[in-house]
Write a structure and sequence with these properties.
The protein is 4% helix and 62% strand. It is mainly beta. The chain has one domain: Elongation Factor Tu (Ef-tu), domain 3 (Beta Barrel), CATH 2.40.30. A 6-stranded antiparallel β-barrel has the order 1-2-5-4-3-7.
């Protein structure tokens, strides 16, 4: 397992959008540790799409759509919109 930082741009119900400096594989399950206000939760999610969102001379950014599987109720009732970003760590499940 490898921990990689990413930024969550949006969360709404059972889905979210993540921004990373690395490509996430589409379809495999990933475990995500989300830092919410007073605690962190671990959720499982599947990447449903991923594409390059920004190209710079020294940086390449990817934006990925996530579908959360077995998400805790605290996440199902959370809303995170662009501009209210949080940093989290992701662990790929193989």
């Amino acid at each position: 397992m490898v921990f990689q930082p990413m930024t969550i741009r949006e969360i709404h119900g059972g889905a979210g959008v993540a921004e990373t400096s690395f490509a996430l594989q589409v379809k495999p399950l990933h475990e995500l540790r989300l830092g919410l206000r007073d605690r962190s939760v671990v959720v499982r999610g599947r990447v449903v799409s991923s594409s390059i969102s920004e190209v710079d001379q020294q940086l390449l950014m990817y934006r990925s759509a996530l579908e959360f599987i077995e998400s805790p109720s605290t996440l199902r009732h959370s809303r995170l919109r662009a501009g209210d970003t949080r940093t989290l760590s992701a662990t790929a499940v193989t």
